[in-house]
From TrEMBL:
UniProt protein name: inositol-phosphate phosphatase
Pfam families given in the database record: Inositol_P
Taxonomy of the source species: Bacteria, Bacillati, Actinomycetota, Actinomycetes, Kitasatosporales
Catalytic reactions on record: a myo-inositol phosphate + H2O = myo-inositol + phosphate
EC numbers, comma separated: 3.1.3.25
Length: 294
């Protein structure tokens, strides 16, 4: 299937994709919000990496529904990859790929915090063509199609530029998900003119950047389901993104980390420079690692 046919699919079926995302949330996620039983929550790699029945069942719903909407497509979902890491290799194949994070911000979901969302992106040959970010607790849906802009509930999103007289607010990877080398890179953000804080749901942080409410992100992991939807949303809202070497982030992997997405190109370059140490030394306020997200 070529990109033209994928574009034709989006023109005819974007509303159907939105409907299935809302349906998955309504049937599998929201009935369990603040009602999870102990047996419905499991750990994956550790106590900060949780999975629930809502994650598994919402991903199953979306896998079946989206695959049926676009025959010949494949699915790379967070829970499917956890069960079989080889599924991730589909990102480098020739088929259109649905990239799914059924509950982005599972820790928040488990704790009864509404700061979680469902992320879906459609990619082809490593290029993200469309994305959907749905925050079901707030009933907010952000969408983006490459070259056609970003929207929140039908209203055009424009990220704008940070105010020059205010510190840059940067959402930063939680220290539990960073290596020692990445921690050292992230410490470059602890300088005058920057206000780093630990991130919550990656998808909602990207939405905040696209809305101009947060100035930038600095993330240290590259799982496509966390980033594909949000990066397109930010770019289509007028923002920019860079990895540690200054190259764009690739959903297929092999990126130099950490990387940033920001409201505009100048901010992305500044944050990437601080992460790589090329922005020059700055005073260190000695605040230590980011505080855990609530």
């Amino acid at each position: 299937m070529d990109e033209r046919l994928v574009g034709d699919f989006l023109g005819r079926h974007s509303a159907d994709v939105e409907e299935e995302i809302r349906k998955a949330a309504a049937v599998e996620i929201m009935p369990r919000f603040r009602r999870l039983a102990e047996h419905e929550v499991d750990q994956k790699s550790g106590p900060h990496d949780l999975v629930t029945d809502a994650d598994r069942l919402a991903e199953r719903h979306l896998t079946n529904a989206l695959g049926a909407l676009l025959p010949g497509s494949v699915v790379v979902g967070e829970e499917a990859v956890h069960a079989n890491p080889l599924v991730y290799e589909a990102l480098q194949g020739e088929s259109p790929v649905w990239i799914i994070d059924p509950v982005d911000g599972t820790r928040q979901f488990v704790h009864g915090d509404p700061g979680f969302c469902t992320l879906v992106a459609l990619a082809h040959r490593g290029v993200v063509l469309a994305s959907w970010t749905y925050a079901p607790a707030h009933d907010q849906l952000a969408t983006a199609v490459r070259g056609q802009g970003a929207f929140l509930d039908g209203t055009r999103l424009r990220s704008g530029a940070p105010e020059p007289d205010r510190p840059l607010e940067v959402a930063v990877s939680h220290p539990d998900f960073t290596t020692d080398e990445q921690k050292r890179a992230l410490l470059g953000l602890w300088t005058d003119g920057v206000a780093p804080r630990s991130c919550g749901s990656a998808g909602l942080e990207y939405l905040a950047v696209a809305r101009g409410e947060v100035d930038a992100t600095a993330f240290s992991w590259e799982a496509a389901w966390d980033h594909a939807a949000g990066l397109l949303l930010v770019e289509e809202a007028g923002g920019a993104q860079l990895t540690l070497t200054g190259a764009p982030f690739r959903i297929t992997g092999g990126n130099s980390l950490p990387f940033t997405a920001a409201r505009d190109a100048a901010t992305a370059q500044k944050v990437a420079g601080l992460l790589s140490g090329t922005a020059g030394p700055g005073p260190h306020p000695g605040t230590g690692d980011p505080a855990p997200a609530s």
